[in-house]
Design goal:
elongated, about 25% strand, about 575 residues, Ribosomal Protein L25, Chain P, Rossmann fold, 14 helices, binds magnesium ion, binds adenosine-5'-triphosphate
Length: about 575
């Protein structure tokens, strides 16, 4: 590739290197990728990595190769009729679009069932496939293992006529599930187990969500995938590392059909490392268990790493894309630290979320000497100096306010710079106040704090005065009530136990959701709309929940804390 010194650094990785080489050698005139989810569940952050890679390549190269047909297809890999559903298809499309991508072509593997069938007859006719009537258990025995070569099936030498007749009758529905399968005739002694006469078709008397009752034989992934790729003209078929051994079969299918089928492209498969994240789960089985066992509140529970869950949590698509970019595309599996995702979320929201004041665990403060009816409208900026944005609102100040319970201590340690008896603290945007007295309930808990205020300290310390702590507050008279849900990492351990389900469930972080009622928010938040994001000063980033917020009853979700509290806890 030619590159000039002044060109901006483009993200590069081994996949992009391969594509650049292919273009330079003119092996392809376009770059067409695909994202091929199975519609049997919701997408998660791991899928987001694959989406960012595949759609990202489509976007990048279509800028370089305008009008060439470069892009990325969305294809539902719907070869297993039993587990699939249109409900999942709708969810997946919504998620891909929400992440900011648009597909060039929209397909189903089932669009090609008729062609796949025709190609299978061609393989039979060229002596490359046969109908096998071994039971599942027998097939397993005949396959051998990594150290032992397999044995030929006794049905391997059926004639072309017999194979064709049986395969046609399989299609007609003359046999029961499992009675026969169609297998490729390759090599039962091949070192690659995937090449030991792999199954191409199986009988399933199950309706399909797209094709209904039309078919009772269904193609296997390893047969359907290369054909779908080739028919769409895919150039680079990118999948995760566990498909490395399938690549040989992928090539076998293409090579044995390309002349007959006149495919518009000769796609190749490339494998990259899947995304693993600590403190969460991405396995479909585990996610399903959490949802169906009601350990979480549906697929969009904000604790889950599903795209729907992260969206409801308030994470932006920009943050997810930025995260996928920092993770990069590698050839070796590894586990990414959740802190890296959280960093990307903060980095994104720092510029986007206006800063406001909210008291999550309120403690009432009465300011003595401040006139009963007086209200001062204080100017408060939404943005700190280092964010290049402007805008402010008025926060009302009056005699009774709320502060956080944590911001007051009866017997503070030496380095406690917040409110305590005899101690002074600054109220953000307002006055310095000094605690003179407390009111306790029968159990000795402080229920109210009495303070005096210094009228000379409004907004600024007079020269020579030093007050170390600044705390946030909310006017009691103007406060807006809300429920606030504090979300945290799904698991309390880095890696969930792989053993029994019960052990996995024990790894769920009991503090992953903490519900606070009666929180007091500053007046301006009364106008907040579902999906609006804010920084609650000193607390974290929050979003107005899109599902449970009703007129007059606000629910906020914590997106992420302001600092990495886990790193600190781990050091301890
Ligand atoms: P299944 O076990 O059902 O195959 P899956 O997670 O592979 O689960 P698919 O719907 O087949 O789900 O995935 C669609 C695409 O997303 C595939 O190309 C797959 O390789 C990719 N993908 C899935 N999980 C990850 C992950 N953790 N990191 C990167 N890519 C992933
Ligand atoms: Mg898969």
């Amino acid at each position: 590739m030619s590159s000039s010194a002044s060109a901006p650094a483009k993200p590069s990785d081994f996949i992009r290197d391969i594509i650049n080489e292919d273009l330079q050698a003119e092996r392809h005139k376009k770059v067409l990728t695909r994202f091929p989810p199975e519609p049997n569940g919701f997408l998660h952050i791991g899928h987001a990595k694959s989406i960012c890679l595949n759609f990202g390549l489509g976007n990048e190269y279509s800028e370089r190769l305008p009008g060439s047909g470069t892009g990325c297809n969305l294809r539902f890999d719907d070869t297993d009729p039993a587990k699939e559903d249109t409900l999942f298809e709708d969810g997946i499309q919504e998620d891909v679009r929400w992440l900011g991508f648009e597909w060039s072509g929209f397909f189903h593997a089932s669009d090609y069932f008729e062609k796949m069938y025709e190609y299978a007859e061609h393989l039979i006719q060229s002596g490359k496939a046969y109908v096998c009537s071994l039971s599942d258990a027998e097939t397993k025995q005949y396959r051998g293992d990594v150290k032992t070569p397999g044995t030929n099936s006794p049905y391997r030498d059926r004639t072309v006529e017999e194979n064709l007749d049986l395969f046609r009758r399989m299609r007609k529905g003359e046999f029961k599930d499992g009675e026969h399968v169609l297998r490729a005739k390759i090599d039962m002694a091949n070192a690659n187990m995937k090449m030991r006469d792999p199954m191409l078709y199986r009988i399933r008397h199950t309706a399909h969500h797209m094709t209904g009752d039309k078919w009772c034989i269904y193609p296997m992934y390893d047969y359907a995938h290369p054909i779908s790729d080739a028919l769409e003209g895919i150039t680079h078929s990118i999948c995760t590392l566990e498909f490395e051994n399938n690549r040989e079969l992928y090539d076998w299918v293409i090579d044995n059909l390309i002349e007959f089928a006149k495919f518009p492209s000769r796609p190749h498969q490339y494998e990259f490392a899947r995304l693993n994240l600590n403190y969460t789960v991405m396995s479909k089985r585990r996610l399903l268990e959490l949802v169906e066992g009601k350990h979480v509140d549906g697929w969009d529970d904000p604790r889950l790493p599903t795209i729907a869950g992260m969206r409801r949590r308030g994470i932006t698509p920009d943050a997810i894309r930025a995260f996928c970019a920092t993770v990069g595309v590698a050839k070796a599996n590894s586990t990414v630290d959740m802190a890296q995702l959280e960093f990307c979320i903060r980095d994104d929201l720092n510029q986007k979320a206006p800063r406001v004041m909210a008291v999550l665990k309120p403690l009432k403060v009465v300011i003595e000497g401040y006139p009963d009816d007086k209200v001062e409208e204080l100017d408060a900026s939404y943005w700190p100096h280092d964010v290049p944005k402007e805008g402010s609102r008025k926060v009302p100040f009056c005699k009774e306010i709320y502060i956080e319970q944590d911001d007051f201590m009866l017997e503070p340690p030496k380095d406690y710079f917040r409110l305590a008896p005899g101690q002074e603290v600054r109220l953000r945007y307002a006055y310095c106040i000094k605690c003179t007295d407390v009111v306790k309930d029968a159990d000795g808990n402080v229920t109210e704090v009495r303070c005096t205020y210094d009228p000379d300290t409004l907004g600024n310390n007079p020269v020579g005065r030093k007050v170390k702590g600044t705390i946030h507050w909310v006017s009691a008279r103007h406060a807006v009530d809300a429920e606030v849900r504090l979300y945290d990492r799904l698991l309390s351990v880095e890696a969930p136990p792989t053993g029994k389900d019960s052990e996995f469930l024990n790894a769920i972080n009991p503090h992953a959701l903490q519900v606070l009622k009666g929180c007091k928010l500053e007046r301006s938040l009364g106008e907040a709309k579902a999906g609006d994001r804010f920084q609650f000063e000193r607390q974290g980033y929050f979003v107005v929940d899109t599902k449970d917020t009703k007129p007059g009853s606000l629910v906020f979700n914590r997106i992420v804390t302001l600092k990495d509290s886990w790193a600190k806890a781990q050091k301890k």
